[in-house]
Amino acid sequence: MSSALRRQAWVIGLAILLAALFVFTRIIQPDYGADGFGSLVRAALPFVFAVAGQTVVVIAGGIDLSIASMMALTSVTAATLMDGASEPFGIVAVAAVLLLGFLLGAVNGILVVVSRVPDIVVTLAMLFVWQGAALLVRDSPGGAASEWLKELVVGNLAVPGIPTGITDWVPKALILIVVCLAVVWIPLRRSRLGLSIYAIGSSSLAAFRSGVNVSRTKIVAYAFAGLFAAMGGLVLTMSTGQGAPIPGPYLLASVAAVVLGGVALTGGKGGLLGPVIAVFVLRLVRSDLTFLAVDPNVTTIVEGAIMVVVVMLGALLAMRNRQP
Question: Of 102, 129, 187, 239, which one is least surrounded by beta carbons within 10 A?
Fold first, then answer.
């Protein structure tokens, strides 16, 4: 038990920090309750899936700067497919968009492996490629989302026999996050493929000598990042009812949350729970600044400064770990 607690010390510390922020929020905003928590979860939705995709790649020893562009491309694709279509067709559209995201990520991985150019350079180039593709699909915000999809992120969980005072604190968006991440991450983490992803992040040479197909594993890691990005694109369409071709502020936020969540930028260390908690920490900080009536421009500066500091600290730790 003590060993497990030590391994999860960083995640536990983040959870305590998040709880302390909730207490602080109630102090500065006494009427902050279930509605405020629901709004926080819905605001965090796309960031959660962006950080999930980034986490898989960073654990594998890489980085993906095209996460936000893939989210934009899958968002406009989903909105275009569902525009004017029947409700049942939404199921087909969701499956097609998830497959598209998986393929986009796989293309990133293949280019990284085949070209042998650093991940950061390849994915920076693909950022512009996927952004341009999003603008080709739809050059301005528009499209539609199936009503049953929009209902998945609006409102709270309703369970017969459980008082609404309790279920009010369980937004549907939170259930969506838990289900989607658990369905993909838990089987992946416990599989041989998941172990291979951690192995190549720790040492690709040692992994290769142990019989791991490094190239294939890296491609699959990027493919799963694309899958999570597609989920992020879908929730953007579900939340707004339309698709937007311009990437949102998810790239730097995803990297900051990965580092704050305890994932080593050198790869091979960390999990998904820490970065997800970090997303809520960062979003709640932004909410608190709004409650304190801080100028929106100053709020943006503070939020960006926090992200930059976190990323810089992560980079410094990564450099320190590489030193003999």
Answer: 187
